[in-house]
């Protein structure tokens, strides 16, 4: 599959009821070998949590009519950004978009689909910064985000049963 054939569709908070099952289906395929993990099993809760945010933004990529992956997130609550505890001096404009999920089905990995989904999600954001969390068991993923302009600023374990994620931040616009 060429990323040239990837159709990107944008969705928001009000669209969650019509895209929720698509997100769950892509997740089930992407994590088929880890569905016995309790943290992975809570994905529907995360979809509802993020989708419940009025600023929720999602991009789903389609190869013809087949969803191949998605990226979603929402603006961070001021003062509660994941990077805040790791940066001694916040930038003048600390508005932040939290990239919560970027997921590509196995068949479409290493095709550029993930980068296109990510770019489509953040390219028109009004916030100055983007932040995301990366599982440290996936150093290649962290290196990929570094290639996309992110830098690691610390670690964070948001839930007792979650990994101690690497916190990564990226400038979206000049501050």
From TrEMBL:
Protein name listed in UniProt: N-acetyltransferase domain-containing protein
Pfam families: Acetyltransf_1
Matches recorded under PROSITE patterns: GNAT
UniProt organism field: Streptomyces purpureus
Cross-referenced InterPro entries: Acyl_CoA_acyltransferase, GNAT_dom
N-acetyltransferase domain ranges (all copies): 6-173
Domain of life the protein comes from: Bacteria
Gene Ontology molecular function, alphabetical: acyltransferase activity, transferring groups other than amino-acyl groups
Gene3D superfamilies, sorted: 3.40.630.30
């Amino acid at each position: 599959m060429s990323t040239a054939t990837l159709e990107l569709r944008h969705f928001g908070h009000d669209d969650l009821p019509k895209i929720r099952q698509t997100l769950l289906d892509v997740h089930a395929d992407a994590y088929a070998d880890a569905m016995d993990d309790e943290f992975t099993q809570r994905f529907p809760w995360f979809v509802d949590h993020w989708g419940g945010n009025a600023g929720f933004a999602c991009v789903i990529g389609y190869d013809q009519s087949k969803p191949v992956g998605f990226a979603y997130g929402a603006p961070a609550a001021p003062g509660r950004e994941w990077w805040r505890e790791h940066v001694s001096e916040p930038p003048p404009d600390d508005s932040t978009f939290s990239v919560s999920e970027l997921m590509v089905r196995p068949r479409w990995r290493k095709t550029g689909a993930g980068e296109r989904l990510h770019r489509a999600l953040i390219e028109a954001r009004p916030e100055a910064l983007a932040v995301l969390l990366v599982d440290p068991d996936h150093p290649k993923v962290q290196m990929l985000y570094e290639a996309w302009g992110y830098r690691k600023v610390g670690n964070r374990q948001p839930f007792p049963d979650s990994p101690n994620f690497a916190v990564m931040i990226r400038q979206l616009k000049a501050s």
